[in-house]
Structures are given as structure tokens and as C-alpha cells.
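tool=predict chain=A
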Amino acid sequence: MLGGILKIFVPTAAASPTDHTESPLPILHEPPPGTDNPIDVVAIHGLGGHHLRSWTHTAPTGASTIWLRDLLPKKFPNARIMSFSYNASLIDNTSAHGIRGNANALLAALRDVRDPEDEEALKLANSDRNFSDIAHSTKGLMFFGTPHRGSDLAKWATSISGIAQTAVSKPGAKLIKTLETNSPDLLKISEDFGPLAPKYAITSFYEENAHPTTSNLVVSKMSAVLGLPHENQMMMAGDHSSMCKFGEGDHRFDRVWKAMRRMVHNEAASAQSLRLSLVTKARRRNVLNRSESTDDKTGWAGDTISYTWFEVALQRPRGRTDVGTIRIQHNRAGNPEFFEHKTRWDAESAGPRVKAWFHVLRPGDTIQVVPRAVYRCWTNIIQSASIEIQYREKDALELETPSPPLIPHTDHAYSTLDYAEDQIRVLVVEAGKPDAEIEARFEHVSLGGASGTIAPFHALSYCWGESANRAEITLRMSDQISTLAISPTVKRAIRRLRKPSAPLRIWIDAVCINQADLEERANQVSLMGQIYSRAEEVHVWLDEETLGLDEALRLIHDSYNCKHRICPGGDQCTCPGTKHGLTAAELDVIAEETKQDPTFGYVFGVFYKHIEKGYFDPASTDAAGGEGNLQLAYFLQTFFHHPWFQRVWVVQEAVLAPKTTLHSAHEAIDWNEVLLVNDVTSSPEFATRAANLRTRNSMPSVWKTLVHSHKRERSPGESGADETPPLTILQVVMAALDMKATDPRDKLFALLPFGRETGNMRDIPLSLRPDYNKPLARVMADFTRWWITEYSSLGVLSLIHRQPSRAWRRTLCEVDPPPVTSPTWAIGTEGYAQWSSMTLEERFPLQFKTAGNTQPDGTLLGSDENLELPLRGWRLGTIVALDHPPKDLVCPYTGNIDNSSLLNLVFNRMFDPSARTGEWLLHGSNHSEGEDDPYELQGIFDHHVYAHYAYLSTPEQEQYVLQVEEQGDSIKYARYQASDLPGCIEKCFFVTSEGRTGLCPWTAKQGDVVTVLHGGNVPYLLRLLEKQSADEPDRFMLVGECFVEGVMTGEVVGNGTRESEVFVLQ
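tool=predict ok
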């Protein structure tokens, strides 16, 4: 059997005993009628398995034990236990269904019996209303040797059932093909399941022993685990076949049922948030109560301001909400005593922002109370917490009538595009009054016609909104009339933009692209840059439902006029769109009153003048902090927190367009006006004006970066123009890490037009062209490999440290580093642009040249179907000791402020222990390196150490650091107890088997291999992976870069005493 899964559910109703002899979901145990707290357990066997034999242990005496039937009910008498049966034969399997087909069959059976799922079925359940109750009721999943990333067919095909290897080539073996190592189907399923996984408890068992037939592991640990932060990974004694077969007295069964008990009772040592999901029967939500018993032991707290707080957030499966987070409570500053916060929100009496929050709640949404702190790695200690919501139940008719799903586009609506002519579809909306029905038709427009001219059209930029909602417009197609399903957001935008007397010709991505045709989708994505750059005007639709949008656009409009005086304002304003409300005389007064603050003072002046003139309605006042606490920073955060500014696709939509206009329900302003205010509010000077508010009152930094870069490209010959070359595609992708995308592959595809190497889509390398048939892992592996080849450098490998789980400093709540998914050497799409400088490659760009002038071996870098990267280099031993930095070598631990050793410099720049640069802070910092007195920084750090030491969680015997002593040509190290180790400084100092010392990220471990690789400016740490067989070559995961004393300037390359070798990264 290849892989097995156990699912645990909470039933919505008890089922009466039934004869399921012919059912695909036989019941092995039924609890007595009236059982309290019933649960469902569903077992799914793997390929080559059987719904009973896969879970059956046969003793030497011949006695058989089906532990699901014979043992598990003794531990869970309240459990209904089922085992899914499907055709998993390796021989003569004529089934045309793959994993997705069997997942659908499982869901249908579960719906009839009650409810479960597997990884793919869970994904389907979350996206299909017919199965949504299954997804909501699931408590956890247990995997037994499940090959999430596939398995080597040549090794396990014969070992499972003794069949000839030719069986895998038979036409009907669709399941077998799907389970090849790193198959696109498996990688896609894992990617789709990733966003859903945090909702469920997950335990993954991986096999300890090789299969006796081939002496190989059937499924390696790397494939058997998902690599999720909350996943419980356990090795199971036995080979792949016996690891899930237990008899009486088998201690392995104890591990299984106890892990299951933790899932059922939701036992956890710690959590990053408190969650409450709304039930399906909830109709109207009236009251939300929440409380926490907490303390504040953080350092750097002032007399009145605490740097720890709580926020309420809303999480929607596979969806998006526009309400953002709401800060509800700060801790008491520097007070170590537990005390209780209580907050009550009432939908009837709450302010407009909270009312809007209640308004968007839906059944299935998860309410989260999230503890926050300025430092990402700070711990907000909570003694207890609770959430309670009061609601009115739906009546019987509402429960039986689900909301209709969005009707997908039908093929007949889309005629074939001519890719050779770069054709697109344009929606031609007939003229009409705002409240009239919308009628439209499609027209083809060629962007690459021989005449060089194209028919004029506009384009729409917006957030897609909730995919479960639908609206319709009338679509005319030659001699017939049909309806076309669109999102309510798009329909509102069309009504707002439609002209009363002339057709509106507009391109809308979700409407004009046949989303079901992957080939067309990839082609149109490659034309996006041309579409938005050739549109006469791009309309940014911010929709009508976000608080304060009208007021924000008016504020920005008048602020721009105050700076540039393009209009007399007031009654004399004749500008299209939003009118300038403030007169020239009023602007003169503001300019005079704020002349001491010329950078941003006028924005404050306009803000307070708008309040004085009554331009803010109650909802906008609430968004700005409420009466008596009006804050520009709060108000701008509400505006810039709009999800449109966070979506990766909209960057090119706004930046590439010749003219861009932002629209709200009643206002419209030019995009350049927003850019001006953003430049002002993103400045460090503006942040200091409201430093205690901890707000984000500007757009993500990538906007400013790309706008300025694009201006240089459009006017390269202007006098005094910036001669800085355009950004590389890697710089662009890394700058946009903060942005969001429904499909993570779009965090590369959407940015290609901005790259120096990829701006011309016709010349872009094949490996980088948009291809939605490739899974994310392949897309990012191809990109990483292309960069190494293009630039003959390994610098891109350092960028894995921008991922939260792989940064130099510990930025997650987990004590141990979470598992890393394959390929470990490819850059990811998650992370923070703020950490752009926190790698050795970028902090010391010209200082380090560890591999000298060597280059990566091009003969090793060809495309590899197994997602492996072979690199040549030298081995510098392994890490034999890892601990906190020696206090006599690193400045923050000692009074020697003037210590200028390279080790000390690297430590201070990479770990920023006194928050000198603020790179590791939650909201960044206004510090810049070198502007603070070093003695003052030492005092800050000492205070920080004192604040943390009182509750340092490290066991007493581990509170030691390494002390290094040079004795002649050798280096020795010893341990001594230290009384001033702060809990937030990781063990980052290591000693190698060759006696070398250095610094490493927090994810490093003893046994990691220190290497110098051809083409690398810095050393790299590699970790040897488990072998599936003794004759298999060594493969490594990339841990990351490191600093090693005595090798950073090419000493290893120059001495000629070491033999190079090839390291295969996986």
C-alpha cells in the first residue's frame, strides 16, 4: 500500500445502523444510539492497498487484527469508524479516475453517510458548497507514509505487490503516473491544500525501515511530511507496508490513538491566535464578546505605551474580506502581572467600522484574536482567552436553500483568439443610465496588427471579490442573446463607468479571458503589459463598501492641489471627477501655518480643515480614530489598507498605464495624486509624527520602487534624469514579496514586464514564460536555475532567508524550525520585502568573495525533472558545536564598544540586537545605521537583556555559551555559564570539525555541512538528507548562507589543498 490517511470529524447528526455491504464506505464500528459527543473516523488506503487488509495485522499464529475494528473502538467507543474502498489495483486497473476523481467519490459517499475527506477532498470540500459542512466539521488528518511529493516508481512498483515494472506503463494506470516523484498533479494538490491546512490538526508518520524486497524506503521522509509549521511529524517503526498494521499490545498503536485524542480534544501547547468559526445555521450576528488574561514583560516599554497588543481578524476559506484587522486592546506597559481585558461589540450600538465588520461575517468564517508585538519574535504571554458570538439562527427554509454558486463562463461565449496577432477580447458595454440593465458584446482587438494601430479601449483594475457570489449581465452574440455571470464588484464598476450616450469599450481580465482555457490564460497573461500600456485609460475601481473611500480621495485631491495649485478650488473648480473643495484662500492659510513643516505639514493641514468643514461623515470619523482622537495616520491606514493596494497584478495595471484614474462610489482622482501623498506618508519623517500609533499609512514599498523605475525607462534622455539602470526581475520579485496573489505563481508572472531581462515578453526565456500547467515548485525552481545560469552566480540562493521560516533571526512562534519543502534551494513567493537587506550577500555586497572568481559549473545546471540542483564546491567540515555567541567576541554582550572585529560587525548587522536599523521590527523603524550613539545602543541592549532574563525559558543546564581560545595553531572551545543571555537572541555561533568559527541562521543544526560553492560570495550550510537505499548518492537540503572566519575572501580557493566535489541540492 502506498500511503494511508485517517480523518477525524465531528458529525452533525448521528446515523442509525445501516447495511453498507455494497457501500464504498463500509462502517467497521457503529456507536450505540444516543452516544454523547460522537465522532467519525475514516480510513483511506493507498495505491495497491485494500480497505481492510491495509489495516490488518497478522500474528505468527495466523490470528488477524483489524485495529480499526478491533482496537480503536476500545479507545473511542463514541466513534463511527469507516474505511473507504476504491480500485487501487496496480494490475489491470481500467479506472480512468485519478486522485481528484476518487476524492469526489469519497466526498459523495461521505455526504450520504455523514462526512470526511483526504487532502484533495478537503480542497474540493472547501471550494464546493455541496460539501462545505464536511470541511467545517473536520478536526484533523493523520498520514501514514503518504507520498505528498511522490515516490520512485522503479523502487516501489515491485516492492508493493511483486508485479512487473511494465505495469506502470499501461494506459489505465493513471493513479500510478500521478504518484511519480514531484509529479505536477501531486505538487498542485499540495499547493492547493496549503492555505487550508492551518485549520486542521495534522500528524504525519514516516517509515523507519526499508522494504525487505528492495532494501529501499518506499516513501522518504521529505515526501511523507507536508512541512507545515503546526504539523506533528513522527517516525513509525516498520516498513511501508507494516507501519499501519497493529496487533494487541503494540506500542505503536498507543502513539496513534493518543495523537488522535489530541486532535479530537484540540490539545495544543501553544497557539498563535484564538479562533472561532461561525456555524452554517448562523443568520444574523449580533454580539461579539472576547477576553484575555495577559501580561506585558517586554522590554523597551515606555511609561504609557506598550509594544504588545491584540487585533481581531477575519479569515475566510479560499476567499477574501476587505475589512482588515481592528486593534482592540494594548497591554499595560511593562506590567508583569496578569490582568483581564474584556471587549464587547454590539452590532446595534457599535461604530460604523465595527458595524461594517459584522455586516461581512458569513457562516464558515473564522474570527481570530491575534496577539501582536513590535518584534516578530516576541512572545505575548496569555493565561487564558475566549471568544463568544451571539447570533440568530436561520429558519428551516434558509437552511435548505443554499446560495447559488457563480455560474462559470460557457465556451459558447468565447470565440477563438488569434495568438499570432496578439488578439484580446474587449467588452463593449452599450450606453445606458446607471440603473438600466447592462447589455454588452465581445469584440476582438489585435495588439500586434500590421497597421500598427489598434481600436481604442479602456481597462479595469479591481479586486476580484468573493468567487461564491454572482451577478449577471446580458451578452449579445451575433444572432442570439445570453447571460454572462460576473462578480458583483465588476457589475458595480460597469455601472459606475458606463456612459449615458456612447458605448464603453473596456477590457476586464475575469470577463474577457476564458479562465477555463489554460492555454489562452497563459497567452493573455503574457500580454498584460501591452494591454495596460496601450489602453487609453485604466480605471481603478475601489468599490463602494469600504469605509472612508470618498473622504480619502477628496483629502488626497485637495492635498495635491495645495502642493501644486492646479485649480482655484471651491466654486471655481471645473475639474472632471472630484471637485476641489478648499479654495485658494484656504490653501494659502494652510501653507502659511505649516511652512515650518514643508515636507508633509500641508497634508495635516488639509486633513484638519476637512474635519472643520464637516467633510467627514460618522463612518469616516470612526475610521480616523473617533471623536476626540482624530488621527491622520489612522485614516490613511484605512485607505492604504484597501486590498487593491496589496494585490500583485494591479501593480502593472496602474504603473504601465498612460493614464490611471481611481474611482470610489462618488469620487474620481488621478493616480499621480495618490503617488504624491504616498511619497509623503512613506517618509521616515512622517512616521515619527505618529510613532506611537504603529500604523501602516502608505502603500507597500514596491509601488514606490516600480513607479520610479518605470519613470526612468519612459524618459531616459531627460536632462538630469536618474541614470540608474532598470531593476532586474529578481529585484522586482523580491521587492513585491509583501503583495498578495490568489495564485502564488502570479507573484512572478505578474511582475515580468518590470524586469530588465523580461520586459519584452517576446524575448523572455521559455523557462520563465507564464505557464499555468507548471506547479509552483517547478516555476520557482526554473526561475532560480535561470538566474544562476544568466548571472553565473549563486547570490540568488541567499534570498531564501526572506522567507519567515528561514530568516536569519527566529521570526515565528515555533521553538524548532518548521520543515522545509522541496526544492529547498529555490526562492519562494512568501516573505517580507522589509528583510531585503538581511542577508550576507546584500549587507556585505563587495566585501565577501568566498569562492574567488569561480563560476557555477554550467554543465551541471541543465533542467532537472527531479527538482535537483547539482553544484560543485569544497567541504569545510561539519558543525560540531552550536550555541549563543561568546560574550568576549560580540559587542552587545560586552562593554567593549569599540570592538571592530569582522565577527562582531557581522553579528550586529545581521541580528540587529539593539534594533539599530529596525529591520526585524514588525512595522520597521526610523533608525538608519550609524546615526545613534553606540554607548546608548549598549544601554538599550542591556535593558532588553534584563527584561528578558526574568522569564528565560531555556533549561538551566543549557544557559551556557561557547568560549573560544586560540592555542598556537589550534582552536579550542569550552562552555561557561552566562547570567545575561536574552531569550530572543538565537544560538547562532558555531564551531566546525576543522576548528573554524562562524555565525549562522537560527535554523542551523549540529551536523550541518559547511561548504564553499563555485560562484558563491558567501559559504553555505547544507544538510544531508536520508537515503532511500545504501547505493543512492548523497543529496542535501540548503539550510542557507553562513559566515565563517578566515574564508570570506577566497582563502579556500587560493590554497589549492582541497579537492572539489559535487553537492546535489534537493
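The CA atoms of residues 377 and 811 lie 5 Å apart. The chain has 32 helices and 35 strands.
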